[in-house]
Design goal:
This protein is mainly alpha-helical and 464 residues long. It folds into four domains: 161 residues, Rossmann fold (3-Layer(aba) Sandwich), CATH 3.40.50; 148 residues, Rossmann fold; 50 residues; 87 residues, Orthogonal Bundle (Arc Repressor Mutant, subunit A). Helix content is 45%, strand content 11%. The protein contains 20 helices and twelve strands. A three-stranded parallel sheet has the order 1-2-3, with helices on one face. Strands 4-5-8 form a three-stranded antiparallel sheet. Strands 6-7 form a two-stranded antiparallel ribbon. The chain starts with 5 loop residues before the first strand and ends with a helix. The relative contact order is 0.09. This is Glutamate--tRNA ligase.
């Protein structure tokens, strides 16, 4: 029987949901929700809010809303690490009582001096209170783990493989500060244990933390979770992702006009692969995702590729669904007449949008109202010899047209050109200029169909 898989996403509430954090959450969610996960599997959310000076409740909201927008649901209520401080302290005192941790009175200048002395000597920093040769003082003390000093701590990582850390390079980390507050390292281990986390999936910048945390698991006599440290995301230039590379938060991508499905697919392909598949919808991701598909090399975020992936999901939308999602990106709310045009041209508009926010430029020709200002290059077709006669003839033909479909309009315009022994290059451009004022537009039949009979004829008549 397949065992339950329990993963967690544990962001710090200091800002938006970072794109790298969103990918970590996605991988953790897929692994717990995927087809290979047994009954009882869970994806949990823990807010690592022990740093109260940097805690931001608005950031908590931004993180949860970002996860919800991406469709990454979690089991149960989000867990506050700060609220579990007593439990963390309990674990530290458990180790102290078992002789696997010790009280340390080194602090301030004394601690700095001891660290500097060890650094100069090229030796491992070890507090003198690990094996005290003098009476212990009164006053506040921290609690340090009595870490092994010989051998190595070996991490068996599902992504990085076997990674060995010499124990002489890992000092006795503080578990409980002198003011009684737990450190991050202690809190993470206790929380993951109590939450019954089976797989810790996170960025490889935490790999050194895994060595220290594994020492703590072993000291407490707890099962060590499966480690999976995924490479960080880099920009297209190969450098660590930063503000210079553009949007970093999920909400920024949402506000740029990404669909959650498009961004999710893009994030999935940052460091994970399933053969040569590029478009991987959610249901396939849940079926295929496994830790073995994660590469060791840093993934590169290519904005053009990300937008192209999003475009695929826009094309999959119905015209109605596209408009519902894209209309908020227009600067002004469309009038009823404009909405009718947009609805008729929705399939064409979405075909020219990589992002929902592209609707403004893709649909500009439909939103430009009479009287049109046609100047510069856009006006040239209207000034060519015979343009006025062409417009008059086209109006007469279109007035007689019963079927106002794109196909019928195209056929009528071509028939008109043939009847006058004109190339279509003498007919199409002045008609398009008169109707669109030179703004980018699709095939002429689609364009005139979108405007409708009355509006099309009125625009043509304006330019005679």
């Amino acid at each position: 029987m397949t065992k339950p898989i329990i993963t967690r996403f544990a962001p710090s509430p200091t800002g938006y949901l970072h794109i790298g954090g969103a990918r970590t959450a996605l991988f953790s969610w897929l692994y717990a929700r995927g087809a290979h996960a047994g009954p009882g599997s869970k994806f949990l959310l823990r807010i690592e809010d022990t740093d109260r000076a940097r805690h931001n409740e608005d950031a908590v909201t931004a993180i949860t809303e970002g996860l919800q927008w991406l469709g990454l649901d979690w089991d149960g209520e989000p867990i506050s690490q700060f609220e579990r401080a007593d439990r963390h302290a309990e674990a530290a005192h458990q180790l102290l009582k078992a002789g696997k941790a010790y009280k340390c009175w080194l602090a301030g200048d004394g601690l700095d001096a001891a660290r500097e002395k060890a650094r100069e000597a090229g030796t491992r920093f070890t507090s003198k209170w690990r094996d005290p040769k003098e009476p212990t003082p009164d006053g506040p003390y921290s609690i340090r783990l009595m870490a092994p000093t010989e051998g190595a701590t070996v991490i068996q990582d599902e992504v990085q493989g076997e990674v060995s850390f010499p124990n002489h390079a890992l000092d006795d980390m503080v578990l409980l500060r002198s003011d009684g507050t737990p450190t991050y390292m202690l809190a993470v281990v206790v929380d993951d244990h109590d939450m019954e986390v089976t797989h810790v999936i996170r960025g490889d910048d935490h790999l050194i933390n895994a060595a220290r945390q594994q020492q703590l698991y072993e000291a407490l006599g707890w099962d060590v979770p499966v480690w999976a440290h995924i490479p960080l995301i880099h920009g297209a230039d190969g450098k660590k992702l930063s503000k210079r590379h553009g949007a970093l938060g999920v909400e920024a991508y949402r506000d740029e006009g990404y669909l959650p499905e498009g961004l999710m697919n893009g994030l999935l392909r940052l460091g994970w692969a399933h053969g040569d598949d590029e478009i991987i919808p959610r249901e396939k991701a849940l079926e295929w995702f496994d830790l073995s598909g994660i590469g060791k090399a840093p993934a590169r975020l290519d904005p053009d590729k990300l937008a192209a992936t999003n475009q695929h999901y826009i094309q999959d939308m119905t015209g109605e669904a596209f408009l519902e999602s894209a209309l908020p990106f227009l600067e002004n709310s469309p009038s009823d007449a404009q909405m009718e045009r947009l609805a008729r041209a929705a399939d064409d508009i979405k075909a020219r949008c990589r992002l929902l926010s592209d609707i403004g430029s893709a649909a500009a020709y439909l939103l430009n109202e009479r009287p049109l200002e046609i100047t510069g290059k856009a006006a040239k077709p209207l000034k060519q010899d015979g343009a006025q006669e062409v417009l008059a003839g086209v109006i007469a033909k279109l007035e007689q047209l019963d079927d106002w479909s794109a196909e019928a309009i195209d056929s009528t315009l071509k028939s008109f050109a043939e009847s006058r022994e004109l190339s279509f290059g003498r007919v199409g451009p002045p008609v398009r200029a008169a109707v669109t004022a030179g703004l980018p537009s699709p095939d002429l039949g689609i364009t005139l169909h979108a405007f409708g009979r009355i509006e099309t004829l009125s625009r043509l008549a304006d330019q005679r």
